[in-house]
Design brief:
Two copies of one chain form a homodimer. With 308 residues, the first copy, chain A, is of the alpha+beta class. The first copy, chain A, has nine helices and 14 strands.
Amino acid sequence: MTNIFALAIHGGAGTILRSTMTKELQTQYEQGLKDALSAGYTILEKKGNSVDAVAAAVMCLEDNPLFNAGKGAVFNNIGKHEMDAAIMNGKTLEAGAVCGISTVKNPVLLAKTTMLYSGHVMLAGSGAEEFALSQNLQFENDAYFYTQQRYDQWQEALVENKVQLDHTEKKMGTVGAVALDCFGNLAAATSTGGMTNKKFGRIGDSPVIGAGTYANNATCAVSCTGHGELFIRLVVAYDISCLMEYKGLSLKEACDLVVYNKLVAINGEGGLIAIDKAGNIELSFNSEGMYRASIDINGNSIIKIYKD
Amino acid sequence: MTNIFALAIHGGAGTILRSTMTKELQTQYEQGLKDALSAGYTILEKKGNSVDAVAAAVMCLEDNPLFNAGKGAVFNNIGKHEMDAAIMNGKTLEAGAVCGISTVKNPVLLAKTTMLYSGHVMLAGSGAEEFALSQNLQFENDAYFYTQQRYDQWQEALVENKVQLDHTEKKMGTVGAVALDCFGNLAAATSTGGMTNKKFGRIGDSPVIGAGTYANNATCAVSCTGHGELFIRLVVAYDISCLMEYKGLSLKEACDLVVYNKLVAINGEGGLIAIDKAGNIELSFNSEGMYRASIDINGNSIIKIYKD
């Protein structure tokens, strides 16, 4: 066991500008990030494991209506919520993912339960919810997932016939966490409500192991947020791992190459959080802003929203 | 334009033994592989592109009740068919994938249509079928997807309460194709009916870009078949690409490392087909057999089932 542990979280990347943010709202976002950071870090401090820490941090963000995951999930084209989530254990390379679920309070907890108890990695739709029921997970009805802000965004999108990640701010609504625990184990988790007004059962990168979520003790843990289709096509999270393992790049070099070159080359707007086995943390994004926070191995914490 | 083009296909890997195969059935499998090879190769010969070639080969396998995809898809726990498919264009890194669909005749065609016209990469369930309807794809009812062999496998699995990839032969039921066209472009496609008696909307590696399906002109095109959960956790298809691009391995070296070492280390039974930009073909599997066939750049074809 070491005394080194660290945690990073994100609450989505996109066009987040000071000019369109009120002081009250900014304070609420910062408090939401602080709460989630605390939920995960408390576990790491008590010598808990990284899987539990990232799940706890993401559940806290899911329960916060400000973020596009869990309670704050956006509306799809028919006024429903379709949520995706994933989690991965860097020690064992075990993984769990769920997509297109509508009634489970904490999708990331269902992803974790899928990893631990289903014998599978990825479960979808009503089948995934049936599994959640068999595992006694908490369900919520449409009223719980209703937030006025998301409803207004959906109505606006319907009128304009637009599919938006998070309409008003063009925010890529996704939350995630990565952690290194005192046992030297890495983990990553991601959860999302997807795109406002989305159709056709669209699935983004969040629940795709290797694209939006990946963890491997040999390299790093990564959780992404952004234009999911482009993150899937570049297999972003595993690409960072491979650049480290096969090409010898540092975490920073790998993240810089993927976020500022490879993604930019195909107009892939967004960002990611990543941590390596030494506890180095990267919070990289090529968008205007990314809700992000971290506590490094020395206990120093940051909570940030904008580029500067 | 070059005069170099080549194609490889698979019809699933697993415990395929001479001792449990009749001569008649073997002939039918070989004819099925020959037909699919011909469907794809005809397109390449006429200077068609690799995306069309892999789609045509896979559609031919989907239409053949012997293989676990399309018409021959296995039954899930509630007597339905839940099919997944994916396709990727190595030139553009565009990709399309569908999962959990029950009524579309050719899932790989829906994956291709998703890639070309949806603006998304991955569509699921009834939403994906709604998109298929909007694109005038062909639908079929339960009677079309009914085959006595699959029904009997399901009944047997129900009694034993087992989830099997393809019960009788322990075959990993998946079909796929990879191709290099005369323009130097690579493509890969995969389609599956999943596991007999599967529950909870389980999704395997086939529709997961980077895991079961990947193509990149810079490296290779790969289509996998096997115990999907383990292929997802190792991000198998993209791992082969990264081993070539970042570590300088040849296609054969990369396939050998992943199939015979990395997968074996976690009991990941199965195999894959892969092709590189020079037209080198690998048909690798760590199971007893894999239905496979190819035509190389010199026009030499092989059709094989067993290890030897």
